[in-house]
Amino acid sequence: MEDSRNRFKTLPGKFEVYGTKIEGGNVYFTVSVPDEAEAQLVLTDAAGKTVLEKVSLPASERRGSLSAVGLEGLAGQNFGYYYLVEGKKVLDPYARRLTDGICFTDGNDYDWKEDTLPLTPLHKTILYKLHVRGFTKKAGPSVKAKGTFRGVAEKLDYIRDLGFTAVEFMPMYEWDDTLKMTPHTYAEEKPADLPKNYWGYSEKNFYFAPKQSYSSTSDSCRELKDLIREMHARKMECIPEFFFPQGTNPMLALEAVHFWVDSYHADGFHFVGAGVPTELLIRDPYLTRTKMLFENIDADWIYGGRNPVRRNLMEYNESFMMNGRAFLKGDEGQLGSFADHVRRNRTTHEFVNYMANVNGFTLADAVSYDWKHNEKNGEDNEDGPAVNASWNCGAEGRTKKAAVLALRKKQEENALSYVFLSQGVPLLYAGDEFGNSQGGNNNAYSSNNSVGWLDWNEIGKEKDLTLFVKKLIAFRKSHPILHMKSPLRESDYLSVGYPDVSFHDTKAWYCPYDNSSRSMGIMYCGLYAKKEGASDDFLYVAYNAYWDKHSFALPSLPKGMKWFKEMTTEAKSGREFSDEASPLADQRSYAAAARSVTILVGRTEG
Fold first, then answer.
1. Of these four, 395, 399, 434, 483, which has the most CB atoms within 10 Å of its CB?
2. Alpha-helix residue ranges (DSSP H) falling in 198-307
3. How far apart are CA 396 and CA 419, in angstroms?
4. pLDDT at position 193, please?
5. Contact (CB, 8 A) for 282 and 313
6. How high is the pLDDT of residue 413?
7. Residue 479 clears pLDDT 90, i.e. is over it
8. pLDDT at residue 187 in the model
9. In terms of Cα–Cα distance, which of 579, 69, 570, 164 is closest to 354?
10. Pairing relation of β-strands 534-535 and 19-23?
11. What are the distances in angstroms from CA 206 to CA 38, 103, 177, 248?
């Protein structure tokens, strides 16, 4: 099979390997081409500017639509490559690195230096979601490598110190940066007018190659591995988001996931798109220790009614956000669903709860706008979710009205309390901890600009909100009754005199769920959870979504214990968490302020 015109001796290909494989001193290439189509492998110099040689891939030597060839002695050489199929340039979908339209292999010589996966249990996971470029592009002098993997690494201590255990990254593999879909106002004959793809949800993806434009160096593979190694050193998990459009080859998807687990030590994945091979991924024995997030899971059917040995599945829970926002602003008929969302988890998997995410308003905008303002997207404001369950608190957008601003701040704190005081896995969209705004844009898919980038100038103005998030997370972590690994039963199954969870309102042990109800007290019995060898505390969370104060009846505690106020969003900003050592003067009822969340802790006095 030797070709005398070539610098390297050709070898029989390895059809069982897709993409490239380095073995000994040889490199093997495999690519799928249309039947009988003329194809060539093109080798270039490291800069991709000079063609070194072309290797014919004859149709007579294919298996199915696969062409494969090996080149002897190519390993260790500095080269790039691509394919020509019927004269048209084709990139390798399995390329390990892409730069300026040229494919490259990854030498796999990275030293992980005793890297250890954190393996955080599912019920202890706390997610922080970010966009690599947008997270630090506007970070100021505190970050040197802005908008890159290295830029994120420079902010890891900030994320860890807030208390998050994992970071979910929006797509950070290579994708087509121009959207080929036809939005409302774009015509096919005007390709220059097509919007830019900032988010990364594309029909054309290269799942094996980190996005080169997210790297501050020419070696995106090494820079991403550096980031993940630094995350693991801080006991933080890396969870990339993968978009698989309709028509994605299930085996390509599975191989890409395996590759990221092997080569990048990924701890989990969030899968989106119509082409996600959900059952194939869940049933794969290689991924049972890998966290997997899906938009929807029929876990009972997949597991056949049995519980998994190790829970590793999470289900995105947009209904938590929509119901939570409606309850937050005081809509009728929301309490029953809210009560269910707050306590919900499963023996098969966890639900991911959030009050804001990439698709929709940021948290600050959800309490500042009644209507979407996507005019800058160029689609006549017709794009983006039409229903947001938002409320501007009395003024649309930016305002100087003190009363409106104070209410917005309280509503943000209430929303954050909903997330971090609920069972399941809490998720915070980056920037919501310091009131990041997109100016009412609820669909920043093309906004690779100040609209889509986090404005870190706001963190100094909103340091109290950031501190509130940090304290909420710390409180959650210190009370395992708030993140149980099995569903709460609402029964006294331990025969301790109290159910694990109970619901109250103006009367103890009774909570009405009629359309006009906008308040609820939830008591968690700490005897059902252990912390540091002892039982957890009794907790009572008073949710008042009324626009007026509301009185909650407090259940009696075991002898010798009293109720103490731990936190309330009715307090002055920065003082929500109390250091008071005295119990409540009234141990039978608590008067909650309008639109507030309050945490009471039951413990012995002194």
1. 483
2. 220-233, 250-264, 278-283, 299-302
3. 25
4. 59
5. yes
6. 98
7. yes
8. 40
9. 164
10. unpaired
11. 23, 10, 12, 12
Handedness of CA 10, 14, 20, 23 (dihedral sign): negative
CB 269 within 8 A of CB 242: yes
pLDDT digits (tens, 9 = 90+) for 364-405: 999 999 999 999 888 899 999 999 999 999 999 999 999 999
pLDDT tens string 100-147? 999 999 866 899 999 999 999 999 999 999 999 999 999 989 899 999
Contact of 582 with 565, CB cutoff 8 Å: no
| pLDDT of residue 419 exceeding 90 | yes
Q: How confident is the model at residue 2 (pLDDT cuts 50, 70, 90)?
A: very low
Helix count and strand count (H, E) for the chain: 13, 29
Read off the tokens for 553: 């009846």
Instruction: Report CA-CA distances (Å) from 61 to 10, 20, 40, 56.
Output: 13, 18, 13, 10
Would you say residue 190 has pLDDT above 60? no
Q: Within 10 A of 99 (CB to CB), how many other CB atoms are there?
A: 20
User: pLDDT at position 378, please?
Assistant: 85
CA distance 436 to 112: 35
The per-residue pLDDT for 194 is: 64
Q: Where are the beta strands (DSSP E) in 308-414?
A: 313-316, 350-353
Which residue type does 539 have? L
565: phi then psi, degrees, rounded to nearest 5: -85, 120
pLDDT tens track for 205-227: 999 999 999 999 999 999 999 99
DSSP secondary-structure letter at 593?
P
- Helix, strand or coil, per DSSP, at residue 159: helix
In angstroms, the CA 506 to CA 520 distance is 9
Rounded to whole angstroms, how far apart are CA atoms 35 and 49? Answer: 30
* Separation CA 132–CA 134 (nearest Å): 6
Q: 253-275: string of b/e by CB count within 10 Å (b at 16+)?
A: bbbbbebbbebbbbbbbbbbbeb
Q: Residue 544's closest CA among 338, 276, 265? A: 338
Q: How confident is the model at residue 5 (pLDDT cuts 50, 70, 90)?
A: low
Say which residues have a Cβ less than 8 Å from residue 578's Cβ, sequence separation at least 6: 565, 566, 567, 568, 571
CA pair distance 353, 408, nearest whole angstrom: 21
Q: Which residues pair with 351 in a beta bridge?
A: 315
- Residue corresponding to tokens 């996966």: 117
Residue 131 pLDDT: 98
Residue 189 predicted with pLDDT over 50: no
pLDDT at 532: 83
Residue 120 tokens read as: 């955080």
Whether 484 contacts 123, CB under 8 Å: yes
Cα–Cα distance measured from residue 477 to residue 531, given in angstroms and rounded to the nearest whole number: 10
Tokens standing for 345? Answer: 């988890």
Q: Are strands 19-23 and 26-32 parallel, antiparallel or unpaired?
A: antiparallel
DSSP notation for 474-501: HHHHH-GGGS-SS---SS-TT-SSS-SE
Quote the pLDDT of residue 606: 67
Residues 6+ apart with CB under 8 A from 5: 53
